[in-house]
Amino acid sequence: MEKILIFVSSIRWQDIIDIAFNSYILFRLYALFRGTDAFRVLLGIAFLWIMQRMAVSMGLILTSWMMEGIIAVAALIVIVVFRNEIRSVFRARNIWTILWGLPQKRIKTPVEIIAESVFYLARRRIGALIVLPGKEDLEEVVQRGIPWDGKVSSEMIESVFWPNNPVHDGAAIIQGNRVVEVGVILPLSHRKDFPTSFGTRHRAAAGLSEITDAMVVVVSEERGTITITRGDDLLNINEREPLVSAFREHLGIRENQPQYLKRRKIELRIAALMALLIVSGVWFSISRGLDAIKTFDIPVEYANRNPAMELLNTSATSVRLYLRGSRALLRSIRPEQIRVRMDLGKAVAGTNTFAITNDHLSIPPGLSLKEVRPMVLDVNLDTRTKKTLPIQVDWVGKLPSDLNLVRSKISPSEIELNGPKTILDNMSTLYTKSIPLNSLDSSGQTSAKVVIPSAFLKVASGSKEKVVVEYEIRRR
After folding, report:
1. Positive or negative, the Cα torsion across 140, 145, 149, 153?
2. With 80 as the cut, is the pLDDT of residue 365 above it?
3. 443 by DSSP, 3-state: which?
4. What domains lie within the chain, and their CATH numbers?
5. Tell me: the pLDDT tens digits for 282-292?
6. Of 176, 223, 281, 380, which is most buried with the most CB atoms under 10 A?
7. Are 243 and 233 in contact, with CB atoms under 8 Å apart?
8. pTM of the prediction?
9. Is the peptide bond before 374 cis (omega within 30 degrees of 0)?
């Protein structure tokens, strides 16, 4: 139970968003591509990926390498081979339909009207070619005819194939309850096993069915027979009911639609749950299943220092942390996300020793501390005070032999410094920057900056860091 609580507490809010986002993507792919050939191939690729991960965990280097290559090639093949299906799925009026809207029930195709019209044409020996598309896009397969966009009716279908109509030799494409295109030219089949009685219409119908998932209805002008093609199958129809049943099966029209919609909602809920479980499992195997250790050199931050005290030095300015976690998580961590913070609120003047513990560390969730070096920090603090020190000129070099420095005067002659007490206690005099004597040949004055020997010392307000040096030079 304790391990479970530790694991749950280590989950970051980023991990929850990561799982939820990818679960939703997987669910949307299922909802959009369900029932297509592309989806079945994607399932096969997913199975190969699971096998590849198992091969990696078992140490099967060659097998995992081969499967990884096969998966990469298969993904490319899916995009190329099923580009029409993918395009038809993503062809939506707005992006909202793809990202959020659930698959809606298609506009019901009036299959009874189509069947009645087909038999009417057969009785009158009027040739016809009617295409009922499936889920694949036909745009790149057929030669575009004339846009029609008329509502399906017996009169509409009969007028399209009336012998005096200029488009009667082409095919009519019906989607939903609309005749969307007429006079369409279909690709011809090159099969050799056709009956001799089959003409161009039959070969065109078979040609389209062989390369797409569309169903094509052919009415023979010579014999008045009705044939439907789907895939590689050709079926002669003599009665109305079998034709209606074939239409319903192809278009996915159920008699009991409310019950079907209820089952569909249950199916989608199960799919959403399965997507969540699958992504959670993948996330766990990647993020938690491969532990690694990585080192980080992190500078030490000091907080809550008493303003009246000065931090003189520490035994180390940074510490090396050895953090344990998943490879994926460690790769994403930047040093800026890790902090080592020491609280000096209770520190006293002198040397303070602090043992570095988890309380002093801020590390991203999901990582644990394996080791820290050094384990102890020595921090030297001192109280700040003020001290007035006299200033002397730092003369360097020699005057010419015929000259003599009689006297010099510094203004101001002293300076007040602010800084740590131990440093100021050991100081008795301050010096200016070096003034070379060999550059002087007569009396005069110059300005010089006072040398402050420590970065911890500051010139107190009211004091000047520069002084004026007056000097008198006489000839011997």
Report:
1. negative
2. no
3. coil
4. 10-102+258-287 (no CATH), 111-251 (3.40.1700.10), 291-383 (2.170.120.30), 384-475 (2.170.120.40)
5. 777 666 555 67
6. 380
7. no
8. 0.45
9. yes
Average of per-residue pLDDT values in the chain:
83
Query: What was the pLDDT predicted at 119?
Result: 92
Alpha-carbon distance of 260 to 105, in angstroms, equals 11
Bridge-based pairing state of the strands 368-373 and 403-411: unpaired
The residue assigned the tokens 């939506």 is 92
Alpha-carbon distance of 83 to 217, in angstroms, equals: 26
Structure tokens at 385: 């005070």
CA distance 458 to 448: 17
Closest CA to 209 of 191, 183, 182: 191
Interatomic CA distance for residues 443 and 452, integer angstroms: 27
Spatial contact of 400 and 439, defined as CB atoms under 8 Å apart: no
**Token match 């790149």: residue?**
140
Can you list the alpha helix ranges (DSSP code H) found in 237-384? 240-251, 257-287, 327-332
Cβ within 8 Å of residue 148, ≥6 positions away:
160, 172, 179, 180, 181, 182
User: In angstroms, rounded to a whole number, what is the distance separating the alpha carbons of residues 45 and 70?
Assistant: 9
pLDDT bracket for residue 93 (50, 70, 90) = very low
User: What's the CA gap between 475 and 401, in Å, rounded?
Assistant: 9
What type of residue sits at position 210? E
Q: Are strands 171-175 and 178-184 parallel, antiparallel or unpaired?
A: antiparallel
Q: What's the confidence (pLDDT) of residue 367?
A: 79
Q: Which residues contact 254 (CB under 8 A, 6 or more apart)?
A: 248, 260
Kindly give, in sequence order, each residue whose CB lies less than 8 Å from that of residue 417, ignoring residues fewer than 6 positions away: 386, 387, 388, 389, 424, 427, 430, 452, 457, 458, 459, 460, 463
Q: Mapping DSSP to helix (H, G, I), strand (E, B) and coil, where does residue 162 land?
A: coil
Q: Partners of 405 in the beta sheet?
A: 473
Query: Strand 444-449's sheet: what is its strand order?
Result: 403-411, 466-475, 444-449
